[in-house]
Amino acid sequence: MPQPLLTLDFLDTAAPAAEATPSGEVRITAATRTGRQRKLYIESYGCQMNFSDSEIVSSILFDEGFDTTDDLANADLVLLNTCSIREKAEQTVRMRLKQINSHKKRKPGMLVGVLGCMAERLKSKFLEEEKIVDLVVGPDAYRDLPGLISQVDSGQKGVNVLLSREETYADITPVRLNSNGITAFISIMRGCDNMCSFCVVPFTRGRERSRDAHSIVQEAQALVAAGYKEVTLLGQNVDSYKWASADGLEFVNFAQLLERVALISPELRVRFSTSHPKDITDEVLHTMARHDNICKYIHLPAQSGNTRVLALMNRTYDRPWYEERVQAIRRILGEDCAISTDMISGFCSETEEEHQDTLSLIDFAQYDMGYNFFYSERPGTLAARKLADDIPLEVKKRRLQEVIDRQQVHARARYARMVGKVHQVLVEGPSKRSAEHLSGRNSQNQVVIFPKQNFKKGDYVNVLATSTTGAALLGEAV
Ligand code: SAH
Ligand code: SF4
Ligand code: F3S
């Protein structure tokens, strides 16, 4: 009998703290009560980049006299920070707008704005399609929010969806309202220059640009000074980070940036996401090996295990290349380094044999975790223009289920092999299971739960893992 993957007692799952992957999650920005005149309510969908952007938006509007509220009924301004990655993500937002419309009937002065990737994709079409929307603001135009809001206050609609080649919001200190005070995200770059044929991100986020390395290090230092213990460096493709100083004398690549952040304090854990298999270098892997405080976890989305499909996806690597990168991780960082993936099932013209190749790649890599989806055609992408979305929905869903099932076998095995070992755990808070237990993560990003004793949030605790639920380790402090 297979063990249940997740028993109801242990709801602490390895939440996607360390990847830029959309999680289907929605976040409501917490309230500030500083007596400002107007109340802003923000709901964020999609990936970590969006969650991080909402902190920048809160910061910009705080300076404009807005406190945040977590109660929609109290809001003067409601912003939805949206995602376009799959059709379902967009449908969720449309449905939410309908509910917000009924609130607006009760509070006609309330302004409603759409931010993020859907704003960028649909532009002013949004205003025609969804009559309640007053503001449409793309991901590179948040500095313009105060101006656009005054425009709406004076009775017009406000739209700015200009993409930028420079904007990185480097000088804006995000207000970390959703943080546990221990772990934080730092955006190190924006946009994406890869043209994966299925993907809408290059259209919604624009060209890739890297943020000033000094501003990243300063932000991490400020977080350490404020008591934070872990930062995750975020980008769609962190391994292509590159920044040069204006005088051209200083050049920083991702491995060097990672090292600069790791050197801030041995007490600070450093994570990063996402790594593109074509760009992750041995230099990055050796940098990880040199620093104990760089976590041994790599999110390395494969998308498919078949070379022909990878070519159609325009991923620019083939299966042997991907396998070699996995072997390099194992060689340089050892078997314990965790690896996770994203897979797309039922991409245009994928055959049963090609789908089997994805399953065999999962066996090869023995991923700790997988974020798996069925293909959803996105308007305007290369695939939508050039390839037929010809795999029937039932087939896509069946293949996806097979991918998920295969992945679960490995996830469980990866947890099982950690039993009997001592893990350094950064405590993030009480376990959802009981107030007598604490929950945290090991370097591999696995959830570890153990009796509280006198430990508290933010402590590093050595925990001997004594058993596993398949989705968390249980143990005791040693
Ligand atoms: N920059 C990351 C991916 C960001 S999007 C990378 O290159 O790996 C997150 C994930 O969403 C992707 O890895 C992919 O698996 C999934 N995804 C993107 N577009 C999709 C689509 N059209 N249909 C289904 N899944 C998609
Ligand atoms: Fe999309 Fe590919 Fe860029 Fe990732 S690397 S954001 S999948 S285009
Ligand atoms: Fe992120 Fe979704 Fe945009 S995954 S980059 S919010 S399309």
TrEMBL record:
* Keyword Disulfide bond annotated: no
Q: Which organism is it from?
A: Hymenobacter ruricola
Q: Where is the Radical SAM core domain?
A: 178-414
Question: Which residues are recorded as binding [4Fe-4S] cluster 2?
Answer: 192, 196, 199
Q: State a single Pfam family of this protein.
A: TRAM
Query: Where would you say this protein principally sits, based on its record?
Result: cytoplasm
Q: Where is the TRAM domain?
A: 416-478
Reaction catalysis annotation: N(6)-dimethylallyladenosine(37) in tRNA + (sulfur carrier)-SH + AH2 + 2 S-adenosyl-L-methionine = 2-methylsulfanyl-N(6)-dimethylallyladenosine(37) in tRNA + (sulfur carrier)-H + 5'-deoxyadenosine + L-methionine + A + S-adenosyl-L-homocysteine + 2 H(+)
What family does this belong to?
Answer: Belongs to the methylthiotransferase family. MiaB subfamily.
User: For [4Fe-4S] cluster 1, which residues are the binding ones?
Assistant: 47, 83, 117
Cofactor note as given: Binds 2 [4Fe-4S] clusters. One cluster is coordinated with 3 cysteines and an exchangeable S-adenosyl-L-methionine.
Q: Which UniProt keywords apply?
A: 4Fe-4S, Cytoplasm, Iron, Iron-sulfur, Metal-binding, S-adenosyl-L-methionine, Transferase, tRNA processing
Instruction: Give the domain of life.
Output: Bacteria
Where, per UniProt, does this protein localize? Cytoplasm
| Entries under PANTHER family matching the protein | CDK5 REGULATORY SUBUNIT-ASSOCIATED PROTEIN 1 (PTHR43020), MITOCHONDRIAL TRNA METHYLTHIOTRANSFERASE CDK5RAP1 (PTHR43020:SF2)
Q: Which InterPro entries match?
A: Elp3/MiaA/NifB-like_rSAM, Methylthiotransferase, Methylthiotransferase_CS, Methylthiotransferase_N, Methylthiotransferase_N_sf, MiaB_methiolase, rSAM, rSAM_horseshoe
The Enzyme Commission number assigned here is 2.8.4.3
Q: Which SUPFAM superfamilies match?
A: Radical SAM enzymes
- Catalytic class of the enzyme: transferase
Q: How does it assemble?
A: Monomer.
Q: What does this protein do?
A: Catalyzes the methylthiolation of N6-(dimethylallyl)adenosine (i(6)A), leading to the formation of 2-methylthio-N6-(dimethylallyl)adenosine (ms(2)i(6)A) at position 37 in tRNAs that read codons beginning with uridine.
Residue intervals of the MTTase N-terminal domain:
38-154
Quote the protein name from its UniProt record: tRNA-2-methylthio-N(6)-dimethylallyladenosine synthase
Q: Which cofactors does this gene product need?
A: [4Fe-4S] cluster
